[in-house]
Design a protein that fits this description.
Length: 146
């Protein structure tokens, strides 16, 4: 089972970073690769079991299901349930922690999934670099301008 682990330090208070990313339907508001998103079936973005359907800049449509959400832990866990790549048994968690040495945020985004052996490494690399690190880079840039 391939796994992805990406972490970063964002020069902003954890409360502000969490406020920016906590909306399960809000990817287009902070991630440059995501261009539109909707929650299916009229559910709330914090409802466990809510499904977001979003489009990435390349035009691909992805569906993800919210598995866990915690404002107290500043964490969200979700599963890809529809993707153009052959990904199954996917679980990812995005969590934030306060950096006590300065008013900064430690962000960690992890995932595990199944994929065909000949494609797993490329899928993991793309997920880690384009999605996870790309999101962190966008957050760092946003808060550097603030």
């Amino acid at each position: 089972m391939p796994s992805v682990h990406v972490s970063s330090v964002i020069d902003a208070p954890v409360e502000l970073v969490w406020e920016r990313i906590r909306d399960f339907n809000g990817l287009p508001g902070w991630h440059p690769r995501m261009v539109e998103s909707e929650i299916e079936d009229g559910r709330q973005a914090t409802d466990i079991g809510a499904v977001r359907r979003f489009k990435v800049a390349s035009g691909a449509v992805i569906r993800e299901k919210l598995i866990a959400f915690s404002d107290g832990d500043r964490a969200t866990t979700y599963s890809i349930i529809g993707h153009p790549a052959p990904i199954t048994n996917h679980t990812a968690t995005l969590r934030l922690e306060r950096v006590t040495d300065g008013d900064r945020t430690f962000a960690v985004w992890t995932a595990e999934f199944d994929a065909p052996a000949d494609q797993a490494a490329a899928i993991a690399k793309g997920m880690g670099e384009n999605v996870f690190q790309g999101g962190f880079d966008a957050l760092k840039s946003h808060f550097a301008k603030s």
